[in-house]
Amino acid sequence: QVQLVESGGGLVQAGGSLRLSCAASGRTFSTYGMGWFRQAPGKEREFVTTISWFGESTYYADSVKGRFTISRDNAKNTVYLQINSLKPEDTAVYYCAAARMATTDYGEYDYWGQGTQVTVSS
After folding, report:
1. Banded pLDDT at 38 (limits 50, 70, 90)
2. How many Cβ atoms are within 10 Å of 68's Cβ, its own excluded?
3. 97-122: b or e for each residue (b if 16 or more CB lie within 10 Å)?
4. What is d(CA 1, CA 36) in angstroms, rounded to the nearest whole number?
5. pLDDT digits 0-9 by tens, 67-78
């Protein structure tokens, strides 16, 4: 059983930055991979980024590569998403999720946070 609690969302002007946090608790020993997904109203949930246990492996969706950075602090059981140069199309609910390994596959994630809203104004 793993619980994920997200924070850091908000309303930001285009070009601005946010840092999202996801604090994990419970049986986190098996959460070798962590990821972020996002979903806009009327849209499918889409993969954003993922990271392995030690951070040695990361992968980003093309739409966010170079602007978003995922990191983790295992001592704090926390994963971060630094989001820079925000665009209006980044507006979505952002979810963190936990899996056995770093993966882009939605179906491989066993635990999900409640989501945090990111709104980017033009």
Report:
1. very high
2. 20
3. bbbeebbeeeeebebbbebbebebee
4. 19
5. 999 999 989 999
